[in-house]
Structures are given as C-alpha cells and as structure tokens.
Write a structure and sequence with these properties.
heterodimer, A: alpha/beta, B: 75% helix, 0% strand, globular
C-alpha cells in the first residue's frame, strides 16, 4: 500500500519554483532517504506532505490531503522537522503530559522507558538541556507514538557524532518494525545509507532518481581504472569521472561487472558518490573529500 | 504505571480533550496570567494593612460613616489595580500568542500533533477572554474580602456602598475584560500571527496611521473616535453612561446589563473580533518559523 503518493506536485514561492512536478510513491514499510542539495526542494516536499504548506498538484498521504486535514493526519504521522524545536520554556514532564493529553496514540510508558536510558531529568526545562538531549527527548516523544509514517527533516543537524549515531541506532532498533514507514532527509548521507531501503534524489524541484537500494547496488558500479585501460573504460560510457590519487575513477550505470572487472578495481558506489555524479556536483576533487 | 497516572481519567475525549490540554499548555507557558494579578493583589493588601497600622504615616482616613467615597476608595483601588494588571497581561499575552512559537521554531513541534489551527487559536482566545477574566475576578474578590476583613478587624465594618462596589466589580471586570475588548484581543492575536518582528509597533502603528490619514485626507476623526470608544468605552458601556446613567442611593452608577447587551457597539465589536480570530487561524495554517 502506498503511504505517500505525489503526482505532479508543484510549489512556487513568488517566481521561485521549489517543486517542479514531483512524482513520487512511497510504499509502506520502507525507509526512504530524500537526498538533495541545499534549496533542491527537500523541505518543501516534506512540508507539503505534512500539511505545513499549500501546494498544487495531487498529494495523498495515508488517504488524506495533508493541507486540508493536517490535524487528523497527525494522528498517524509524526515528524521531527529540524533539531531543537521543542519549546524552551517547557518542562520535560510538561512535554510528556501534553503529548499524552493531545495524542490518542501516545504510549507514555514507552517514552518514559526511553528517557530512563538518558540523563534527562523530568523536572528540567528544555532550555536547560543540551542540543543532543533535546533531540533525545523529541525522539522519545515521537517513538512512543504509534504512527504509520515518520518524517525526519534534518533531525540530527548540528549534533555530535555520538548523538547522531545513537539517534539512528535507536530509530532502527527500537522503532522501525517493518510496518512503519520512515522518510528522512539529511546532509550526512553516509550515516544513513546503511539503514535506507530506498533513496530518492531531488534536484531543482524534480525527482532525478528514485530507486530501491538493492537496485542501486546492482545497477551502479564504480571502477578505478588501471592507467592503461582508461581509454577502454571510457568507451563504455561512464556517467561520471573523477581523479583519486592520480587515478581515474569512473561510475557506470547498467554496465555488466564482468565487462568492467578486467579494467581495474570495482566497488559499489555509496549514495554520496552517486549523488555527486548525478547532481554534477562542484569539482571532482572537492566532491571526493565530501564523499569520503 | 506512569501511563495511568497522568493520561488516565479520560473525562474528555477527542478534540475536547486536546483543547483542554491546549489551554493548560498556555498556562504553563504564560505564568504571568495568574502570577501578575496575584503579585498585584499582594502589593495592594500590603498597602492596606500598612494603612491600618495605627500611627503609620501612610494611614488612610477611612471614614465609613461619613464619607461614602472614602469608604469605597480601597475597594475601587483594588479592583482598578487588578483590572489594569490584567489588561497589561492580556496585551502582552495576545501579542506573543502566535509569535513566540514562530520565533522559537516550536511551531514545528505543535504542528506535528493532532491539534487543529482553529483549536490552537481558539485556546488563545479562551485564555484571554475567559481564563484571564476569571483569574481577575477571583483576585479582585479575594482582595476586597481581605480589605473588608482588615477593616472589620480595626473596627470598621464594610458599608453598604462598599458591598455594592464589590458586587459591581465582579460583574464589571469580566464583561469589560472579555467582551468589550474582544476586537482588540483579536487584532493583537492577528498581529502576533503575522508580524515577523516588532509586534508592538505593528499593533499600534497601523490604527494610528489610519487616524492620521483620515485626519489629513478627510479632516474627520471617525476612526479615532471609534478607537477611543473601544479603548475607554468599556466602562461607559457597562454602566450605560452614554445613555441615561442609572445611579443608586449612594450616587454610584449601576451596571446596566440590558443596555450593555443590547448595545450594537458590543455586537459589532464581537463580530470584528470573530473576523480577526478567523484571519489569525488562516495565518496560523500558513505560518512558518521566523
């Protein structure tokens, strides 16, 4: 069953086109990474799905139009948009009370159990917590809601490595059960690529790639060509080339591994490599640094 | 275990329950709603007690038998202080109602919960038009009772006029605080839902600008008079001072419910308030962090 169906989804801000005919279907039980450069329309797309902004075109989330039925939709959809959006004046106990009060699918015991593993005190105000602790608290609140769809928009931005790692580990181990659907955007692609089942690239308001991770593994191959075989490799039509330590690294789309294997070393490209190749990132050397 | 303690007792269900929690949430965030009247009441009662200390240099001449005005002065003063405090709190509350959540980005948290924009705005309206007046009445009543007790303890029982002032302020407070000022609250909440910064200036300058523009272009002052009636007229409307003031045997004006509730000014004001709050809902739906 499709959790999210977008057909020709458009959104303009004045003369700026944020979403330029997005077509996207997200199936139940998937963990989808929505990846794109700054200003590509990621947050706009998520905002439309969550009923935060009006849009043109068709958009169906769990059988509802998010713009006209945001409040009902939020019974089944949870989201963390940005880090540290919990109100700073609120006490941790207030946050638990309030969400328990307004959300019919909130399991307070579950949130308490998660918080018990942290150093967060019930009597603390959010303003007294570190940024990482606020993220933990928000995750505790969200994970205790029995939602069908969880949307995470840069949920770990600005957190240190340990918090980021713990965030995604917790999400995968304690929350994801195969029936829920998660959509996540982040700049730290490498950190989430192992948990994704699907990846969608968005650029200038359009979906430029929408694939299951298995397909990516079978379809794309990266070849570090031996110096003598570079010309042969190039004749096979790489979609992207870059130089690493003076050697030519080429990315191939749909070229059989048997044909490439004699020409050098093969590996499966990471999402970051693919991203750079498909988005025509800045310079080859600079992008290598980002992907590493 | 904890799940039972707090989220149990489902007296209310569904949207009503969410609404009740939204109001509670407002009281967590805006403690001034009950703290400010309480502190003001504390200051007044301290003053009254000091005034009764024999030989105190602030001792007031409260002549219960002779001068009616002297006898009711502390009661009027108490009611006035609480009313003034509540109006200031209401002003500040409305201007921050839909602005704080955008400034601290917490709107992204509130909107992730199944509470509609209409319910959110309605909770703010209920806080300023119901909760705050109730707090004000309670504070005024407590204060006036304490004044009566202090007076009685020092051998001055409350006069009839004083009791009259007590009962009047109980009616007058909520009426003026909530119904008459509703369009002002609506305007302030609308400004808070829309202005990116400078909510205070946005609240004050446009109405002022209209007054100035009208004076320059048409050489008339209708809008200024309208504003003045709204700002100062609550008293007059409640006590029917504009028509034929009804006074009692003490020469004090009497609250005229009939005149107040049939006054077109009241109902037009409420319609304008409804329009402002509706516009605030429209704006809240599109609101983003600033």
């Amino acid at each position: 069953m499709a959790v999210v169906t977008a057909k020709n989804l458009r959104k303009t801000f004045g003369s700026t086109v944020a979403l330029d005919g997005v077509n996207l279907t997200i199936e139940e039980g998937r963990i989808v990474g929505l990846i794109g450069p700054n200003g590509a329309g990621k947050s706009t797309a998520l905002g439309a799905m969550l009923g935060l902004i009006p849009f043109e075109g068709e958009l169906d989330v769990l059988g509802r139009n998010p713009w006209t039925a945001r409040d009902q939709l939020m019974n089944d959809v949870c989201f963390i948009a940005d880090v540290a959006v919990l109100p700073r004046w609120m006490k941790v106990s207030n946050a638990l009370d309030y969400v328990a009060g307004v959300h019919p699918k909130f399991d307070r015991a579950k949130a308490e159990a998660f918080l018990a593993k942290t150093t967060i005190k019930r009597s603390s105000r959010v303003r007294a917590l570190s940024k990482g602790m606020v993220a933990q608290l928000h995750l505790a609140l969200v994970m205790a809601i029995d939602a069908k769809l969880l949307v995470l928009d840069e949920p770990t931005l600005g957190l240190d490595l340990l918090y980021r790692k713990a965030f995604y580990d917790t999400l995968l181990n304690d929350y994801f059960d195969g029936n829920r659907t998660i959509v996540v955007t982040t700049h730290q692609v490498e950190e989430i690529q192992d948990i994704l089942t699907d990846v969608a690239f968005i650029d200038r308001g359009k979906i430029v790639l929408d694939r299951k991770m298995e397909e990516i593994e079978t379809r794309y191959t990266e070849l570090m060509a031996r110096p003598g075989d570079v010309a042969t490799a190039k004749s096979l039509g790489p979609i992207h080339e870059r130089q690493v330590f003076g050697r030519c690294v080429m990315l191939f789309d749909g070229v059989a591994r048997e044909r490439l294997a004699p020409l050098g070393e093969l590996r499966t490209p990471g999402i970051a490599d693919l991203f750079v190749a498909l988005m025509g990132g800045p310079s080859a050397t600079a992008s290598q640094g980002a992907a590493a | 275990m904890n799940a039972q303690t707090a989220s149990n007792t489902p007296v209310l269900q569904g949207p009503a329950r969410a609404f009740a929690w939204s109001i509670r949430r407002e009281l967590w965030e805006h403690r001034s709603i009950y703290m400010a009247p309480a502190i003001a009441a504390g200051l007044v009662i301290t003053g009254v007690v000091l005034a009764h200390v024999p030989g105190s240099h602030v001792e007031m001449k409260m002549d219960a038998a002779g001068n009616v005005f002297a006898a009711i002065l502390p009661y009027l003063f108490a009611a006035g202080v609480i009313l003034g405090t509540s109006l200031l709190v209401a002003f500040a509350y409305c201007l921050s109602a839909l602005h704080n959540e955008r400034r601290d980005r917490s709107i992204l948290f509130w909107k992730s919960l199944p509470v509609s924009d209409a319910a959110t705005v309605a909770s703010k309206a209920v806080v300023v038009m119901v909760v705050l007046p109730v707090v004000a009445v309670a504070a005024t009543l407590c204060l006036q009772l304490l004044i009566t007790m202090v007076g009685a303890a020092s051998g001055k029982p409350p006069s009839g006029a004083a009791i009259k002032v007590i009962s009047t302020s109980l009616l007058y407070g909520p009426i003026v605080l909530s119904l008459w000022y509703a369009p002002i609250y609506g305007w302030l909440v609308l400004v808070s839902s829309w202005a990116k910064r400078g909510t205070f200036l946005w609240a004050i300058l446009p109405p002022l600008g209209v007054c100035v523009l009208e004076a320059i272009v048409f050489h008339t002052h209708h809008f200024a008079e309208l504003l003045s009636l709204r700002l100062n007229g609550g008293f007059g409307a409640a006590f029917a001072l504009g028509g034929t003031p009804v006074t009692d045997k003490f020469g004090l004006p009497t609250v005229s419910g009939a005149q107040f509730f049939t006054s077109p000014d009241l109902w037009i004001g409420l319609l304008v308030a409804a329009a402002f709050f509706a516009a605030a809902v429209y704006q809240r739906r599109r609101a983003e962090p600033i």
